[in-house]
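Complex record, two chains
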Amino acid sequence: MAVTEQQRIAYIASQAADARVNVELQTEEMTLNLGPQHPATHGTLRIVARLDGEQVVKADVVCGYMHRGYEKLTEVRTYPQITTLINRIDWLSSFANEVPFILAAEDLMEVEAPPRAQWIRTLFFELSRIANVTLFIGEMGVQLGALTPVFFAFRDREYVLNLIESATGGRFHPNFDRIGGIKDDLPKGWIAETKDAMRRIRGYCDQLEDLLMGNEIFEARTRGVGVIPAEVGLSYGLSGANIRASGVDWDLRRDAPSPLAWKELDWKVWTHPDGDSFARYWVRLQETREATKMVDQLLEGLPSGPIQAKVPRIIKVPAGEAWAHTENPLGEMGYYIVSQGGLGPMRCKIRSASFHNISIVPWLLKGVYVPDIITILASLYFILGDIDR
Amino acid sequence: MLALQLPYWEITLIKTVIVLSIIPAGAVILGYVFLLKMMAHMQSRMGPMEPGGFHGWFQLIGDGIKFIQKEDIIPSEADRRVFALAPLVVLISTFLLYVVVPAGPRLVVENLDVGIFYALAVSSLGVIGVLMAGWASANKYSLLGSLRAAGQLIAYELPLVLAVVGVVIQADTMSLQGIVHAQANGSIFGVSLVGNPFILTQIVGFGIFLAAAQAELTQTPFDMPVAESELVAGYMTEYSGFRFLFFFMAEFGTAFALSAIAATLYLGGWYQPFFKTGVMADVLGPVILGIKVMFIAFLIFWIRFTFPRFREDQLQTFAWKFLIPLSLVNIMATAVFKVVL
């Protein structure tokens, strides 16, 4: 591609500006490397912040320290093998990662799972949402210095993980979804236990609302911090609770055609007009509570019937392209599969929510104080595996 | 103790040994009761309840062994001598605090006439050690942490002092022993059963003192200098092994000492209504004081485990725009009542 004169001048100008910043750096500003090994980054995200005192002048996100090459690996795996891989993308809600991939593959094969399988899928989807977001609700407290909530989170999340484990055999990585259905039916006594666990999670939500959200310091730390206007958020490709907290009423569970059972449930999409860290926390807390209600309804209305449609023993996906996306706990997650009729896809593009969600960080961090970096990063809620894949 | 007529150096030696043993003892008691047991109950933590069998009694000993075993790492860029000295400076400030706290009519290391003045002065010595640690570590997190600590301690030293002024006005003395006697000899509406603990008249001052003490100790919600989610461990980031243990002991030792001072200033110290003088007062004194110390330490740690932390600017605003004006009003009110009544 030819470089126009205008682009060349712009490049030189940007280089000169950088040089100027670097000269100033030695006298006034300080570069602080948050990460790759830093407790606030949940893993290996690196944020290079230029500080003037405690104020951020410029911040850059460096990701990719945990890149595992999943998009490339899918090209040399068969479809059933791929679900094992993509479990590890967003490791806190593994089952939710499998669903859009399976949906895309089913779309290409023109198979549809029976209703019971769809309902159980929805059930585990929402359970993994609860397992994921309960941790965020507690984790936010730790990032702001309140140590107690996260222990409550781990305590009550345990019940959900136990449920997932007892039904799928995998605590963190269920690998439960199959093309045309699911692996197993629910075990005996599971429904009563689940209802009990949902009661606990609702109690936990109430407790956190009381302990953390009702706290003046928490409000002072989060209100008005990291405000994302709706149009800016949309232009950066934000999704999920991050964009709903900016007042955009957009939820793929309701707004996208999906064979899963969300359409048949009575639930509400929560939004908040403020777009600040508090709003993001608030929306996620409401969504967790909403998810527990959805699980209750799913258990009530679970249809009987088979859990697996008829699919060939060796799965070969016909040539074609398909895109499927769902509203995962972190935001929109989608898979674009290009198949040439083999045992595995020719190319699989993974659209993960966190990667897009953190793209707004450099814009958001300009001019904030160091403690607010942590608040903002925590409230955007990303999982490193979901960024780097 | 003083009746034994020992030479000066022997008495000094005994006193030094006693105070030196109180610091780790106080730190261990607070660490065990509050950090391990109360926190474990509040946060549903299972770990600290397991080691050793009964109620996890071995946990703290195990922690101590762990700290001593660890390698003493000094970063190659660090200023070695300052780095090594910093924990000791912090510990010395804690040590000096214990000198004036009375535990009985005669159980006081040195009954200074300006006891509380002295205590507040030496309690701010620790910040020099913190600054030394932050500067010598050659680490940006440490530096930021220590500067935050310095800014915070300067801001909260003032409300601490001003809160105490109210007590001093009411008691007519700066000697801690004198303040205890002033409370012991007081009466509530003519009933002199429990004396007149200053918490009743100085409740505002008590609140300010607790908040400021919390900040002095860099406990949540004022733990900006050691904010683990942003500054890793603040000025302690580069410390390991027994040097870290020194910081840890200084923190809890100071918590114990400030609780003791708060108990003396506001809750009547060692005083109990049955034995005002004599051997029994000296025997019961430490017990009574200990109970009050535990009560105040409970308040401090309760807040610590419940609240998120302030941001640096909010923290300064809270001190300068709220606590200091409030304490000035408190002084005014106390002075007016003192003159009128």
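Note: The mean pLDDT of chain A is 84.
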